[in-house]
């Protein structure tokens, strides 16, 4: 049995114990815990921004991406004094509100960060609407084509959107919102979009909820966007062999059939420094006119 190695670092005035810094978390990429914490530090301004005011769920991989994993909602114990929590439904969620907290989670091998759709400050009115394109196949060469069709439809409706890789197999289409609609109202828009695309492209899309009945179709999941549910946060790493990162894209990249595996922990910072956060480029908008159009169409 290898001897456990520990050391301490001081970040923003807080002392953190780092255990086994040389442990390989992504062996194929040569990413040790020390490298992961370095990359997490670089990503922290963007990752914390997209997790702010939300309930955080992490997925921990104590022995790296090939080992066992588990979801963590409750704050791990013991927790340092600098870690803050939000209480909700008898769960103490960690607030990722500082770099020391993020690195503390990283040291515990929290490799993925999933944020709730509902905000802590106003749970009833979301600040974005998300359509999750979920392939039935583990490798789906049509996923960018599918995302492009969704983007084109939204554009024709006057809706500005941002595509984002899940970092796994799918793509999520994000629409920043003025918070004037409820989750239920946005579900009605999602149902309209999902049904339209499934009818127009029956060989590509489905809104069938049961995976066993989807065949090889891409599921337009408009139901996932709801209170109590989560999405992998923009710029969260994923526990995949290639150390992929959930990455917002330009629509031009989607149309050029970008690969989800193109964006990983070792190259994401050069992209961020070059392009910035693409989600910031889209101003919040109201979908109330779209909802009114759908309601009138149904009469």
Automatic annotation (TrEMBL):
Record-annotated DNA ligase D polymerase domain positions: 32-278
Full protein name: Non-homologous end-joining DNA ligase
Signal peptide: none
InterPro entries linked to this entry: LigD_pol_dom, NHEJ_LigD
Top EC category: ligase
Keyword Ligase among record annotations: yes
Species of the source: Paenibacillus spongiae
Keyword Ligase applies: yes
Keyword line: Ligase
